[in-house]
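Hey,
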Amino acid sequence: MTDSPAARLTAFLEDLEQARQARDVTVVVVTKFHPVELVRELASTGHRDFGENRHPEARDKATALADLDLTWHFLGQLQRKKARQVARYADVLHSIDSLELVEALEGGEPEDDRPVRDALVQVNLTDDPARGGVAAAGLEALAERVAAAEHLRLRGVMAVAPLDEEPGAAFERLAAYAERVRGIDPTAEWISAGMSGDWREALQHGATHLRIGTAITGNRPRGG
């Protein structure tokens, strides 16, 4: 088997099949800094879920690949002034982290014909307020606001494991936060957690969406 992105995707899915214990899991292939040709190659295998972290690159790829009917996941920090632009092409917003961001997404004229986007509340698993995500103390208030939003559909939670902590312990806390969100909306069952280096630990603690980059795409091009 050649070491191509499509071959790595096949190998990853085989590993996932053995580890996921018959649970439905969505693999979001993170393609930041990679060309649209790589996305087309992976899409040719039937894969449909792709993620990006930066608005201009995400917008350009979604536009260039509009013929493929892909599901685009926006994973990076959302700037309030750009949030509405991102929501025009991103089907899933993984990084809802403040009430102000929800208000920015909800803003605009009432007659705007906008689609409802799936939304995940990003939780900060560290004690550093500068890191992305809402603090645990504000989780319910933010989840309730997303659930009440006209243009957002509360789906669950997202987090990134801290670098200075064993990922399993961090994802165990995230699973508890996810349960709190399900207390607000029982259908908000998604847990977006786990990347190329810690997806197995995330899976053990209920992850439904894995954000996988280099394990499938290979190293980023130089300059990325």
